[in-house]
Amino acid sequence: MKIKEIMPHQEGRERLEAYILQNKMGNGQKLPTERELCDRWSMNRETLRKSLYHLGLEDKIYSVQGSGNYVKKEKYERNLAGLESLTEWGRSKGLTVTAKVISSGVIEADKKISRHLQLVLGEKVFFLVRCRYVNDEPLAIEYIYLPYSAFEGIEEFDFERLSLYHVLEKYYHTSLKNGNESVSITYIDEFEANFLQVPEGTAAFFTAGVVYDTEGKPTEYCKTVSRYDRLTFSFLSKELISRGRG
């Protein structure tokens, strides 16, 4: 029986994977330079680069131009079917979820906001823009809109410290039942890049949806830009139900 020959780049890939395991590398740790790895294994640069390329295709490493090669961070996974808040999700995973308020206030509803919240054009809405962090790493930016007539005075609450949904339930006696949400791909703009700490133009998940109260009234319209390199979504239900936001 003829034994299948192992190609040089396949051997290089195995050496790289073994090196990562033996050194217990992870969470964005940097690999040695290409020159160091070539010298270590007496490998030519072209073969090594092909090995690195294939590991990149398998999403096990990533490259930063002018900096080097890094071990790929494990992505966080969220289920889109359910009303679990980001804070609750993080707690169930043993993660710490925090928020930084970028801006908030009361504005007039434009066509898109009024359509989603079923308001008259120009009616007052409360808006809240927050950057959400998981274990102190920026993960997403939320753009939240609520009908101000239903939640007057809500701008006085500290949403870096308090859960939005907790405030709605405790102080405004509003319970949330279900909603709808869509997922697509967007590209991070200059404003978002500054908070998410990634280059402008980086691909990201874009989710948008409306959450309804127990009477079927639209309560929240939210758009979220999430880092594609740190998050993935799963669907465990045929019915897409909006995620709650802590």
- Share of helical residues: 25-40%
Taking Cα atoms only, what radius of gyration do you get, to the nearest Å? Answer: 23 Å
The residue-averaged pLDDT reads: 87
Termini gap:
61 Å
Which secondary-structure class do the elements indicate?
alpha+beta
What low-confidence regions span 5 or more consecutive residues with pLDDT below 50?
A: 237-244
Strand content: 25-35%
Element pattern in H and E: HHHEEEHEHEEHEHEEE
List the strand order in the largest sheet.
4-5-6-9-8-7
Number of H- or I-type helical stretches? 7
Q: How many extended strands?
A: 10
Overall morphology: elongated
- Main beta sheet strand tally, sense and closure: 6 strands, antiparallel
Organism: Filifactor villosus
InterPro entries: Bact_HTH_transcr_reg (IPR050679), Chorismate_lyase_/UTRA_dom_sf (IPR028978), Tscrpt_reg_HTH_GntR (IPR000524), UTRA (IPR011663), WH-like_DNA-bd_sf (IPR036388), WH_DNA-bd_sf (IPR036390)
Protein name: GntR family transcriptional regulator
Domain HTH gntR-type: 6-74
Key traits:
single chain; 246 residues; alpha+beta; six-stranded antiparallel beta sheet; two-stranded antiparallel sheet; 34% strand
Structural write-up:
It is a single chain. By secondary structure, the chain is an alpha+beta fold. The chain is 27% helix and 34% strand. The strands form 3 sheets. A 6-stranded antiparallel β-sheet has the order 4-5-6-9-8-7. A hairpin with a 3-residue loop joins strand 1 (61-64) and strand 2 (68-71). The longest helix is centred in the N-terminal third of the chain and has 15 residues, at 8-22. Mean pLDDT is 87; it is low at 237-244. InterPro entries: Bact_HTH_transcr_reg (IPR050679), Chorismate_lyase_/UTRA_dom_sf (IPR028978), Tscrpt_reg_HTH_GntR (IPR000524), UTRA (IPR011663), WH-like_DNA-bd_sf (IPR036388), WH_DNA-bd_sf (IPR036390). Pfam families: GntR (PF00392), UTRA (PF07702). Residues 6-74 form the HTH gntR-type domain. This is GntR family transcriptional regulator.
